[in-house]
TrEMBL record:
Any one GO molecular function term: serine-type endopeptidase activity
Protein name from the UniProt record: Rhomboid family protein
Residue ranges that the Swiss-Prot or TrEMBL entry lists as coiled coil: none
Protein origin, superkingdom: Bacteria
Keywords: Hydrolase, Membrane, Transmembrane, Transmembrane helix
Family: Belongs to the peptidase S54 family.
Topology in membrane: Multi-pass membrane protein
Entry's transmembrane regions: 12-32, 52-79, 91-109, 190-211, 218-237, 243-261
Xref: Gene3D superfamilies: Rhomboid-like
Compartment list: Membrane
Residues of the Peptidase S54 rhomboid domain: 51-110, 171-258
One Gene Ontology cellular component annotation held by this UniProt entry: membrane
Length: 269
C-alpha cells in the first residue's frame, strides 16, 4: 500500500489540520481543544447549545494533537485505496454518511444516558439522602471529579448536616451540567467506517504493523477494532472519555453502505 494522496483524502486532511491550528490560536494550549471545538462539537440533543449542523461539524475538530494525529493517520493509510476504488464522489459520500451516522448513534445513546441521569439528579435535589448519593456516585464516577466514594461515609455519619446535604446537591447538579455540556468531537466515527469498508473490500490485504511487527490481514485488524469498541461501550469504564458508540456507529453505517454498494465480486485483494 502506498501513501500517494488522493484528492478527497488530501482535502479532508487539510481541513482537519487547518481547523485544529485555528482552534489552537483561539485556545490556551496546543495540547487541548479550544473555543472552536466547543462550538462545533456535537452536544446533548436537549442542550441549549445543540445545533443540527453539529452532526457534520463535530467530525472536523479534535481534542488534542494525538487525537488529530491518529485519526488522520488512519485516513491517510486506508482512505486513498478506497477513494481510488470508489472514486472521489462516492468516497466523500461514504465519509460523510458514516461520520453523521456515528453521530446519530452516539447521540441516541447519549440522550438516553443523560436524560436518565437528569431525572435522577432532579429527584435527588428534591430529596437528598446518603443512600441515593452513594448510588449516583458509584454509577457515574467519571462525572464526579475529585469526589471519592469515601465522601459518602462522611455524609452517612452526618445525614442531618444541612450544609453537607446542600453540598451533595450542588455536586450532583454540577455533574449533570458537565454531562449535558461536554461535546463529542473527532473524525473517529468516519475513520472506523473507512476501516470496516477496507476490511470488507480488501479482507486479505496484508498490513504490516509496528505492534506486533508482523503482517496481519485487514479483516483481522477490523475484527480487533470492532471488538475493542464494543467492549469499551459495554464496560463503560469510569474516566474513559472515548466515544465508543460513535466508533460502533461508524462501523455500522460503513457496513450498511458497503453492502448497499456491493459489486459483482465479493472480495478484492
Amino acid at each position: 500500500m502506498g501513501f500517494q494522496l488522493t484528492p478527497v483524502v488530501k482535502n479532508l486532511l487539510l481541513i482537519n489540520v487547518v481547523l485544529f491550528g485555528f482552534d489552537y490560536l483561539l485556545g490556551d494550549s496546543w495540547l487541548t481543544r479550544g473555543i472552536l471545538a466547543n462550538i462545533l462539537g456535537l452536544r446533548y440533543l436537549l442542550a441549549d447549545t445543540f445545533h443540527i449542523y453539529q452532526f457534520v461539524t463535530y467530525m472536523f475538530v479534535h481534542a488534542d494533537f494525538s487525537h488529530l494525529f491518529f485519526n488522520m493517520f488512519g485516513l491517510l493509510i486506508f482512505g486513498p485505496m478506497l477513494e481510488r476504488f470508489w472514486g472521489a464522489k462516492r468516497f466523500l459520500i461514504f465519509y460523510m454518511v458514516t461520520g453523521i451516522g456515528a453521530g446519530l448513534l452516539y447521540s441516541g445513546v447519549n440522550f438516553y444516558e443523560t436524560y436518565r441521569f437528569e431525572q435522577q439528579a432532579i429527584e435527588y435535589s428534591r430529596n437528598p439522602n446518603p443512600t441515593d448519593f452513594r448510588i449516583i456516585l458509584q454509577n457515574n464516577r467519571d462525572l464526579f471529579r475529585g469526589v471519592a466514594l469515601e465522601a459518602t461515609d462522611q455524609y452517612e455519619a452526618h445525614a442531618d448536616n444541612v450544609p453537607l446535604r446542600q453540598q451533595t446537591v450542588r455536586l450532583v447538579m454540577e455533574a449533570l451540567a458537565r454531562k449535558e455540556n461536554t461535546p463529542m468531537i473527532g473524525a473517529s466515527g468516519a475513520i472506523f467506517g473507512i476501516l470496516i469498508a477496507f476490511g470488507l473490500l480488501f479482507p486479505n490485504t496484508q498490513l504490516f504493523l509496528l505492534f506486533p511487527p508482523i503482517p496481519i490481514k485487514a479483516k483481522y485488524i477490523v475484527l480487533f477494532y470492532g471488538v475493542t469498541a464494543l467492549f469499551g461501550a459495554i464496560q463503560n469504564v469510569p474516566g474513559d472519555n472515548v466515544a465508543h458508540y460513535a466508533h460502533l456507529g461508524g462501523m455500522l453505517f460503513g457496513w450498511i453502505m458497503v453492502s448497499f454498494w456491493k459489486q459483482d465480486r465479493d472480495r478484492f485483494y
